[in-house]
From TrEMBL:
Signal peptide: none annotated. Keywords: Oxidoreductase. This is Succinate-semialdehyde dehydrogenase (NADP(+)). One of its GO terms (molecular function) is succinate-semialdehyde dehydrogenase (NAD+) activity. Belongs to the aldehyde dehydrogenase family. SUPFAM superfamilies: ALDH-like.
Amino acid sequence: MKLKDSSLLKTLAYVNGAWTGAASGASFDVTNPATGEVLASVPDMGAAETRAAIEAANAAWPAWRAKTAKERCNLLRAWYNLIMANQEDLAVLLTAEQGKPLAEARGEIAYGAAFIEWFAEEAKRVYGDTIPGHGPDKRIIVLKEPIGVVAAITPWNFPNAMITRKCAPALAVGCPVVIKPAEDTPLSALALAELAERAGIPKGVINIVTAAHGAGIGGELTANPLVRKLSFTGSTEVGKLLMAQCAKTVKKVSLELGGNAPFIVFDDADLDAAVAGAMASKYRNAGQTCVCANRLLVQDGVYDEFAKRLAKAVAGLKVGPGLTSDATQGPLINQEAIEKVERLLADALSKGASIACGGKRHDLGRTFFEPTIVTNVTKDMAMAREEIFGPVAPLFRFHTEAEAVAMANDTEFGLAAYFYAGNVARVMRVAEKLEYGIVGINEGIISTEVAPFGGVKESGIGREGSKYGVEDFLEIKYLCLGGI
Ligand code: ADP
């Protein structure tokens, strides 16, 4: 890994404006999943360091919230500019620790930065209300105030954008943050802190603590009464645990958890468009996003043709290390990820599914996996219920619109859904019936800072991005003025 500005590779955590190690002196290695190379060692922190970070954030809060929205906006804008000026280095760092192809990493840096730009502006429009009073001598005023110290726990699949998507709205409306990045990808987070410092964001406003295992930091972030809000993106299992832990101090929570996205292809769909959408939705980040198509439901009349065209498109994918090749698919994040994909495939094959292409570890070894299509998948197979998080597209067959909608909704998850259809009446009917927070209609890429991202059912609570994204970091205060 070669950076133009080597000072973006930080190997210490960032607490109260200082680069700090673990109290115990312990650290853990961050490796490149494509090569196994150790990129750096970062501090293995726990509850004590987290407490210090929370206290620093709380101490920084009054001055931060007292700034005008425009002052905070200018600081965030400076941060945004520095991120974009260092886009290439940040992308290299991201690919090195996460594995995605460099072009995708560049895209993530721009996508992540866009949240900072968006919320810097949006914070100027945090409007309250005046309400006609309930008596002639009364006036009612509604204020929106920053909630307080925000804890953000983020995953490895978007090491940059999941941080900015949470921190930008929090910071913009006047909240300080304590971030715990995923153990696989802390370097992207620390580089963001370095640029925030250069942008002039005051000490204590952004803090980053790192650990090899999340539980120590997570325990303190969820128990400490100074933390008023937890924003988490990750697995449903850990999300439920953190929500339970937050109950003791009644923290507000935003959760962005697992998905089981259906991708429905109706027989009136533009099949080439559906293939392009499926490629983008399924194979981006090697299938490791929570909005990746997890079940491709294809109507009987177009099933074989769609499978054929999809296989042709998949044959064009190039697997390889993200940094040193023109690969369009990198490695999976770790051994556990590849073992999960193998388990799900073995289960499907044992119950009657067939491999149309791929199906095994790639010749490159390590955690590289062949882009795969599985046909004749049915709902009794584990991959119908579990998030695959790998480059495997399972094709299910359906006959009627009602059957497709029922299959799509037959899951405890409700993050993203996609469907391809031509008939306008069908488009509206199906869009309204899908129990999902996000619906891509004739479109496979739905993430943008200007739209609300989030799920229903067990996929989560809250929305990130858009004008709605600030609400999770605000409290409403109602002033009742009497005796007028
Ligand atoms: P994934 O399966 O995507 O790795 P996880 O939910 O395990 O999802 O991880 C998402 C984030 O949650 C990571 O930053 C991870 O370190 C953190 N995490 C995992 N377990 C805990 C825990 N018990 N308390 C707090 N954070 C945790």
